[in-house]
Amino acid sequence: MIIENHPFQVNQKGHLEIGGLDTTLLAEKYGTPLYVYDVSIIRENARAFTGTFKDLGVKGRVAYASKAFSSIAMLQVMKQEGLCLDVVSEGELFTALKSGFPEERIHMHGNNKSYHEIFMAIEHNIGCIVIDNFYEIELISAILEKQQKEIDVLMRVTPGIESKTHQYIMTGNEDSKFGFNLQNGQAEKAFNILHNHKSIRFKGLHCHIGSQIFETDRFELATDVLFKELSEWRKKYDYTPDVLNLGGGFGIRYTKEDEPIPYQNYVEALVQTVEEHVSEQGISMPEIWIEPGRSIVGNSGITLYTIGAMKEIPGIRTYISVDGGMTDNLRPALYGAKYEAVIANKAVDPVTEKVSVAGKCCESGDMLIWDLPVPNVENSDILAVFSTGAYGYSMANHYNRFPKAAVVFVENGSDKLVVQRESYQDMVKNDLSYE
Ligand SMILES: *Cc1c(COP(=O)(O)O)cnc(C)c1O
């Protein structure tokens, strides 16, 4: 049987499966809380993007935004699939280098890159730095001079597009901490510095308009804004870009309310919009780069928990508590994110009640799911929360000194531990005595 809305099945025992394996056996083998990824879904998601560029015969790059989930094993899968990689910090860059990721396929982002971060990026000859602000241009210039090097860069701009309850409006003054403003002339000023720079190779523009976006029209609007500016620069400076990076933010399904569209549609819409502008302006086709994060890993991962204490408040609600919470999945507490889940060992049992799933941290806000329909729940049942593959492990924290959970990859019917569960010794390893 197939689970509704999520790419998983139930076996003959009525247990939830992932990648052909019984989730209750995985929970028993590795303990809980446990992040489990079906690697075949990660690969399928990646290929939906890369395959569409190939099918359309358009030069493009798909850079996985590693902030969604960065670990050595994950980055190795991205390497195998031929993707590029976005990093936004020295830690993410370090992980990428440790994973053996090809340096020339790494791109660096960030609105406050430090001297040291940029130094490391240039030292390792990464493929591209996406410049965010004027201060960064100074830092990069100084480091290039010091290392006697050159580097490819893109310039991040804010196209001034916001969504307002399903209706999209263009805003005159953009209020964002990221990138150069197109409307007030900052972007053009930066362009002039970069375009004439002796050791910076200016390749083109970048924009990222947001996250969990389900329609293609916002990307088309952003592309329109970029081409409007580019048309000015072509007239004034005879400039045409080699690359347009249109960011990430493609939506996935967390709950039945989310209605994701096939990933191919985004790529096709972007390519078509760029092609229209290119032919209108009579310039050559730039490479199109995109940066999916959530859409590569989000739906491939689940989190397994063991249910412990239960508390029924008659006439109000029943709380069931699990052995994790905002330490392994911060999103509900951080921005009210919604999830769906099943009792993994009773995945086809008829629903009899609604319960609310609490984490075990000392915060009333540590609630994972409100009003989850479940069959008869008992202590020691295993709860499986869906779509936790992105921004779960990567936002995990040590609140209440809970060690970070382990990560297991399953593929072709076998399971492999790819991130060990933290020990209490790990937790105190940087603590120093004061007596
Ligand atoms: C976060 C981010 C992404 C990825 O966003 P998703 O919603 O995970 O696809 C891509 N590009 C930039 C610049 C980002 O900040």
TrEMBL record:
<feature type="binding site">
    <location>
        <position position="391"/>
    </location>
    <ligand>
        <name>pyridoxal 5'-phosphate</name>
    </ligand>
</feature>
<dbReference type="Pfam" id="PF02784">
    <property type="entry name" value="Orn_Arg_deC_N"/>
</dbReference>
<protein>
    <recommendedName>
        <fullName>Diaminopimelate decarboxylase</fullName>
        <ecNumber>4.1.1.20</ecNumber>
    </recommendedName>
</protein>
<comment type="pathway">
    <text>Amino-acid biosynthesis; L-lysine biosynthesis via DAP pathway; L-lysine from DL-2,6-diaminopimelate: step 1/1.</text>
</comment>
<feature type="domain" description="Orn/DAP/Arg decarboxylase 2 N-terminal">
    <location>
        <begin position="43"/>
        <end position="297"/>
    </location>
</feature>
<feature type="binding site">
    <location>
        <position position="294"/>
    </location>
    <ligand>
        <name>substrate</name>
    </ligand>
</feature>
<dbReference type="Pfam" id="PF00278">
    <property type="entry name" value="Orn_DAP_Arg_deC"/>
</dbReference>
<dbReference type="GO" id="GO:0009089">
    <property type="term" value="P:lysine biosynthetic process via diaminopimelate"/>
</dbReference>
<comment type="subunit">
    <text>Homodimer.</text>
</comment>
<keyword id="KW-0210">Decarboxylase</keyword>
<feature type="binding site">
    <location>
        <position position="249"/>
    </location>
    <ligand>
        <name>pyridoxal 5'-phosphate</name>
    </ligand>
</feature>
<keyword id="KW-0456">Lyase</keyword>
<keyword id="KW-0663">Pyridoxal phosphate</keyword>
<dbReference type="InterPro" id="IPR029066">
    <property type="entry name" value="PLP-binding_barrel"/>
</dbReference>
<dbReference type="InterPro" id="IPR000183">
    <property type="entry name" value="Orn/DAP/Arg_de-COase"/>
</dbReference>
<feature type="binding site">
    <location>
        <position position="335"/>
    </location>
    <ligand>
        <name>substrate</name>
    </ligand>
</feature>
<dbReference type="GO" id="GO:0030170">
    <property type="term" value="F:pyridoxal phosphate binding"/>
</dbReference>
<dbReference type="GO" id="GO:0008836">
    <property type="term" value="F:diaminopimelate decarboxylase activity"/>
</dbReference>
<comment type="function">
    <text>Specifically catalyzes the decarboxylation of meso-diaminopimelate (meso-DAP) to L-lysine.</text>
</comment>
<dbReference type="InterPro" id="IPR022653">
    <property type="entry name" value="De-COase2_pyr-phos_BS"/>
</dbReference>
<keyword id="KW-0457">Lysine biosynthesis</keyword>
<feature type="binding site">
    <location>
        <begin position="291"/>
        <end position="294"/>
    </location>
    <ligand>
        <name>pyridoxal 5'-phosphate</name>
    </ligand>
</feature>
<comment type="similarity">
    <text>Belongs to the Orn/Lys/Arg decarboxylase class-II family. LysA subfamily.</text>
</comment>
<feature type="binding site">
    <location>
        <position position="391"/>
    </location>
    <ligand>
        <name>substrate</name>
    </ligand>
</feature>
<dbReference type="InterPro" id="IPR002986">
    <property type="entry name" value="DAP_deCOOHase_LysA"/>
</dbReference>
<dbReference type="InterPro" id="IPR022644">
    <property type="entry name" value="De-COase2_N"/>
</dbReference>
<feature type="active site" description="Proton donor">
    <location>
        <position position="362"/>
    </location>
</feature>
<feature type="domain" description="Orn/DAP/Arg decarboxylase 2 C-terminal">
    <location>
        <begin position="34"/>
        <end position="389"/>
    </location>
</feature>
<feature type="binding site">
    <location>
        <position position="331"/>
    </location>
    <ligand>
        <name>substrate</name>
    </ligand>
</feature>
<dbReference type="InterPro" id="IPR009006">
    <property type="entry name" value="Ala_racemase/Decarboxylase_C"/>
</dbReference>
<keyword id="KW-0028">Amino-acid biosynthesis</keyword>
<feature type="modified residue" description="N6-(pyridoxal phosphate)lysine">
    <location>
        <position position="67"/>
    </location>
</feature>
<dbReference type="InterPro" id="IPR022643">
    <property type="entry name" value="De-COase2_C"/>
</dbReference>
<feature type="binding site">
    <location>
        <position position="363"/>
    </location>
    <ligand>
        <name>substrate</name>
    </ligand>
</feature>
